[in-house]
Design brief:
Order of helices and strands: HHHHHHH
Helix content: over 70%
Strand content: under 5%
């Protein structure tokens, strides 16, 4: 086992890291909800649950970590479902931001927000991927998470137009395409991983 593998395993299994990630994700979620407030204030309250994509993902992950720290078994059906949605959401929206903002920066010029938001959102992808590998949701939970990603994209980019505020509206098609592609990539990754684990158990 390399140093990096050992470090990542420690992050995934050491309660001290869970506490650190809980605090980071909770505070990051609060900042994210604040950042989304202008958009939320112009959106009917009944649709608020679909709007704050990234802070919603980190908040779900913080809840999952809090329950894990409280002693709830991660294998329980509720934790499997919560974990699946949190993991795939972090992977999707982490890479979505780290793709859309740099693409806009290369076309229109870089801004400070593009840099720090891209880097912080890459952290979302890392944590989502890491915990998805160590705490693998079952096929049913993974399938629900994939379906939820598709629902979010449908609402965000077609029915309700509740997608995140884009730095340049001309990038709408790129942002939509990236969202759909990442939903399928990471949703199917989670589902494929769960099915593979199940075959190994019963093989």
């Amino acid at each position: 086992m390399t140093w990096l593998q050992g470090f990542l395993r420690s992050v995934a299994h050491d309660r001290r890291w869970w506490w650190a990630l809980l605090v980071i994700n909770f505070l990051g979620s609060l900042y994210g909800f604040y950042w989304y407030w202008p958009q939320l204030s112009q959106t009917p309250p009944a649709r608020w649950f679909i709007v704050p994509d990234s802070p919603g993902a980190t908040f779900l992950f913080a809840i999952w970590l809090g329950l894990l720290l409280a002693g709830v078994d991660w294998r329980s059906p509720g934790m499997q479902l919560l974990g699946a949605v949190a993991f795939v959401s972090n992977m999707k929206y982490g890479l979505w931001t780290a793709t859309v903002l740099p693409q806009a920066g290369m076309k229109y010029g870089w801004e400070f927000d593009f840099v720090h938001l891209s880097l912080s959102h890459l952290g979302m992808w890392v944590q989502g991927f890491l915990f998805a590998r160590h705490y693998r949701p079952g096929p049913a939970a993974a399938a629900v998470a994939l379906a939820w990603m598709v629902v979010q994209d449908t609402m965000d980019y077609r029915l309700w137009m509740t997608h995140p505020t884009l730095p340049y509206q001309a990038e709408f098609a790129f942002a939509r395409g990236a969202a759909v592609a990442l939903s399928l990539i990471w949703g199917l990754f989670l589902l494929g991983q769960s099915l593979s684990s199940r075959r190994h158990v019963h093989g």
